[in-house]
Amino acid sequence: MTNLLKFAGVAGVAAFTALPVWAQEAAEEAVAAAPDASADPSPYIFTTLLFLMGGFLVFWMAAGFAMLEAGLVRSKNVTTQLTKNIALFGIASLMYWLVGFNLMYPGDGWWISGIMGPWFSITSLEPVGLAAADATLDYASVGSDFFFQLMFCATTASIVSGTLAERIRLWPFLIFVVVLTGFIYPIEASWQWGGGWLSELGFSDFAGSTLVHAAGGFAALAGALVLGPRIGKYTAEGRTVPILGSNLPLATLGTFILWLGWFGFNGGSQLAMGTVGDVTDVSRIFANTNMAAAAGAVAALILTQISYGKVDLTMVLNGALAGLVSITAEPLAPELWAALLTGAIGGAIVVYTVPLLDKLKIDDVVGAIPVHLIAGIWGTLAVAFYTGGWVPQIIGIVAIGAFVFVVSYIVWLILNVTMGIRVTEEEEVAGLDVSELGMEAYPEFAKG
Q1: Under a CB-based contact definition with an 8 Å cutoff, are residues 205 and 118 in contact?
Q2: What is the CATH number of the domain that holds 137?
Q3: pLDDT tens digits, 224-258
């Protein structure tokens, strides 16, 4: 009996000692057998956080566009530009929710089911208090993804606003924004970011030098051609008359705001922050983005001094923005010296493209076509230095450019024929703030 008790005691101690080992083995087996929904939620959490932080930084770019445009137009048109910028963001938010997000992400297969196909569904979010077991832990929340992608859609519309300033009527412009943000941008973006035919072809555009910036530039160019230049911008003798902006401090503030927002624009496009490699890549993107902007500003600073004998602040501001647009197609792969070169060429593009547009009598009030369209094309072509795929890059630029320009041109023509897109000569001379809104930005000062 005594031996039996001793044996039982030893067995009990052994079993007790072995319990942690058995528990650990059981836990490991359970984790191995569990579905993906019970995996480590950290990548899901950090990537969702990246989208949210990147999204609100890109949202702040809306303020940058508003301040830049308000500073570069005459004082009699400032309120109209501010109204257009806040209205276009509201419209973009609604249209991307109603149509754009779900149109963009089935790739290029959206047309198969027709205009009322499965893609035509309002975006919905996860339920409140989502449990880890119910989440798709290999990516991020739908809410964060929708929020982040929406900001790119709104940015495309912001680009159009500045080019067409000081002579376009408010409501035709906003109707165009409905079409651009609900259909034109989501369709062309789906070709790449939605897993469509450009993606399969090997086209590469990391954060949207062409998909966002050049697309906005093509839409702006189409509008400028239909709308025509401002009164007095070009003389009968072919001379260009400078029309100065009302507030360069405001334009400079807008540029710095855009520069800040661009860290979210490019950094968030890493689309992942769940590993050491992802976080390190985001930091690399930040550094390259800043280097390109700085190089674009310095290049414009030097080249305007050489070309005009004096530095042109507006060119320097747009040089920084062109550097940012140029690096957007590939902010991860370059070393800092290559990012510097990419941005500097973007700054040079602005200095030499602005007078070229004037020779062609294309009136671009804020310089959005050189900054976003031409520098966007350059940045997208520069990707081929890292991938070697020149043909896919060229095909992508041509396809997106042709689609956006042609459709935009048709929409502008329809709006012009049906309701007219340009204010009268008397209204333009008086200023759009009075004629369109009856509300001046600076009522206590004389009109500019």
Answers
A1: no
A2: 1.10.3430.10
A3: 999 999 999 999 888 999 999 999 999 999 999 99
